[in-house]
Specification:
The structure is a homodimer of 319-residue chains. With 319 residues, the first copy, chain A, is α/β, with parallel strands linked by helices. Chain A folds into three domains: 1-46, no CATH class; 49-259, Rossmann fold; 285-316, no CATH class. Chain A is built from 14 helices and seven strands. Chain A has helices at 9-17, 21-32, 37-45, 65-78, 100-111, 129-142, 157-164, 179-185, 188-191, 205-217, 240-256, 259-284, 287-301, 307-316, and strands spanning 53-59, 83-88, 115-119, 147-153, 168-173, 194-197, 229-231. Chain A has a seven-stranded parallel β-sheet with strand order 3-2-4-1-5-6-7, sandwiched between helices. Chain A starts with 8 loop residues before the first helix and ends with a helix. Chains A and B meet through α3, α7, α8, α12 and α13 of A and α3, α7, α8, α12 and α13 of B.
Chain lengths: 319, 319
């Protein structure tokens, strides 16, 4: 099997396993585009995907997630770990929509040989955002990347799913009116392992911290862990050291109690269910069934037949 | 079949068809909770679901969508139409997270007999947010509600799906730096039939309008319609009349060219595909298969077997 510039799938797999970022890029494109080779690829590299630690950074737009990510990457790089960033946030500077200061920081990161950055489109990704993001993370892991950071915007369901694909989830908020309440309503309270109040030199930071503490008291600690609430000013590189430490503490905590295994097992379970779902759909929708439905659309639209009736007919149709 | 307080499914269906909002509420709860009766319910009322016009109001958090919705409702009420609001936005005042001024406006709306408001949880909704939102809209339509407004926050995939379930989609932005670019990246440019720049007394409103116009020039008009860009200050009830007019103009436009039928046909097609998907999954996951996968999780987790291999085994398993 050959690709443009005569690179075979075998070469791509070998390249990924040897940690060659240029071939890792190729591999990721195969997966993102849902090409048939991607299944073989993911199957082959699966044995090497267990060693990375995955961190989700999520929160509302404008909370400064990308700045935190870029600062955090440097901390991981100090201990010479390879770091991967997967930006699943359409408003992220990593995805291209940057103001100048951000762009300079991004460029710095991109010049670093131990850092691999990839942004993902949130629309039209084949087979679901969460599935693809996890597959991209697997490829990074197989290429020897030890720390993988997902940057996601914490509003939609898809984004929350990606955050839940992480071992440690950091929720970033800013001290603005109602932000903490919105976080709660958007389901961010339940998924946070660590809270960060960014731009904490602004008015209301301490008030927000107290609000969050009160909300957290109302819920039981998850797996024996109470989410710390950290303040930082990512722009000025303040408080990132504490965030780095708490991520490491959370990792230790998860590893001690066997919780990490349990979490990852649940994640794999969900992934397999999703793969099955996609396969079931592909098999069901033969050309004949698609044509049949298309021909009936007018009857459904004019209420001569109900969707439920059409579904029964499709199900009894022989291909 | 009986429910608490001795209300049968038949009574609920009859109540919906007679436009009784109390029974409509009951019906919506059945659907939201995914109870088995909901299929019969939706099948029975389907014949009466074709007459409502559906409007999506979407945009980033904080753009003032709820204020616009509450103002807009009054315009529709002037012509004595019944109006339904479905808030699929976790940060919406309609969902409970309101500041005082908002809450007063909401209460006013809720006291109006011709207005029916329902907020939907965005997390954990059975069978997908978009599917449920459309079913709720169908119930409203069957109860004689002529205008249905979806309020969604325009960031996640699920929210965009709901917006695409509308006949007319209004994208609300505020004149803040980068908002228009973010809208483009989040896919809002493609789905907008009408743009509203809210809080247009703020700096940058005119600049934003020009930016949007330039972006729109780069794309082909969709079905012969070029999205107008309206300015408003919803708080002060300014510009809502023009928005109301443009929504009506867009409806006229869609009806003239048969475009409305085409759009609705596509929407029904997508819905039927989703119903099929849910059914396929329900049928596949027997207790035996679920148990089988559970027992293999340890092997998958420790990379002794790949997800692809387990999937093959599940597929050949006889129930």
């Amino acid at each position: 099997m050959t690709f443009s510039k005569n690179i075979s799938l075998e070469e791509i797999i070998q390249g990924v396993e040897e940690g060659k970022f240029r071939l890792l890029s190729r591999a990721i494109s195969l997966v993102e585009n849902g090409l048939p080779e991607s299944e073989t690829l993911l199957d082959q590299i699966y044995k090497n995907t267990g060693k990375s630690y995955r961190i989700g950074i999520t929160g509302p737009p404008g909370a400064g997630k990308s700045t935190i990510v870029s600062r955090l990457v440097k901390w991981f790089r100090k201990s010479d770990q390879k770091v991967g960033v997967i930006a699943v946030d359409p408003t992220s500077p990593f995805s291209g929509g940057a103001v100048l200061g951000d762009r300079i920081r991004m460029t710095e990161l991109m010049m670093d040989e131990g850092t691999f950055i990839r942004s993902m489109a949130t629309r039209g990704s084949l087979g679901g955002l969460s599935k693809t993001a996890q597959e991209v993370a697997d490829l990074m892991a197989a290429a020897g990347i030890e720390t993988i950071i997902f940057e996601t915007v914490g509003v939609g369901q898809g984004e929350l799913d990606v955050a839940q694909a992480s071992d440690t989830t950091v929720v970033v908020l800013v001290p603005e009116s109602g932000d903490s309440i919105q976080a709660m309503k958007a389901g961010l309270m339940e998924i946070a392992d660590i809270f960060v109040i960014n731009k904490s030199d602004r008015d209301g930071a301490e008030k927000m911290k107290i609000e969050l503490e009160m909300m957290l008291q109302l819920r039981l600690p998850k797996d024996g862990w109470s989410p710390p609430i950290l303040k930082c000013i990512a722009q000025d590189n303040m408080g990132i050291d504490a965030l780095f430490e708490h991520i490491n503490m959370h990792e230790e905590h998860l590893k001690k109690g066997g919780i990490l295994q349990k979490k990852r097992s649940q994640r794999l379970f969900d992934r397999i269910q999703e793969m099955i779902r996609l396969d079931l759909e592909n098999k069901f929708w033969s050309q004949k069934k698609t044509d049949y439905l298309n021909n009936k659309m007018d009857d459904i639209l004019h209420r001569r037949i109900t969707p439920q009736q059409i579904i029964s007919e499709l199900q009894s149709l022989k291909d």
